[in-house]
Every structure is written in C-alpha cells, then in structure tokens.
Predict the structure.
Amino acid sequence: METVTQLIAAAAVRHRAALLGEADRLAGIVARAFGIRVAFLLGRSTKRVYAYPRQVLTWLLFTELNAGIAWIAWFTNRDRATVRYAIRLVEGLIETNERDRETIARITEALKQPAA
C-alpha cells in the first residue's frame, strides 16, 4: 500500500510532466507565430528577433499555464529576475500597444485549439 507521501510525489511528477508537455506545445505555437525555430526561441541569443518572442512565451507560461517563476526560469534557461522582467514588460506592452495585444491574443487562441 502506498503512503500519502508517495501518492503526493506521484501526483507531482504527473503534474510536472503535463506542464512540460503544455510548455513545449506553447513554445512551438509561439515560435510559429513569430516565424522562428523553437531552438532559437529557447536559445541564448539576445537579438530582439528572439528575445521578444521569448518574453511573450515567458508571459504566456506564467498567465496561461500558471507556471511558477522558478519553473519558467528553468524551462527558458534564464534567471528569475529575467523572467520577472519579461512578465512585467509584456504586461506593459499589452496595456499600451495594440499590435502586441493582437499578436498575443492570436497566440492565446491557438493555444486553446486541441493539440494536433
């Protein structure tokens, strides 16, 4: 018979696996929306062509998947301060920039479609 601790640990592993699968799917959706490869989206380049989509991905992971800051930092290979900065930046852009708001709305709609 499994203990409560073992059951909780097993549930946590299943949750992390599901979160990772959804995060991978979201990364693919964001990469396609911006016309880049996932490898570049999650890479080390600081070029705007990759950094901005990465910031959008960070914000979406936080808002749509309810991922924590530390988990997002791990997934995107960034430090926690960078993750917090990206979330605040995208929130500000959504409030002030119609184009950014529309882009993120399209990505969010794509996320709601069933996985292929």
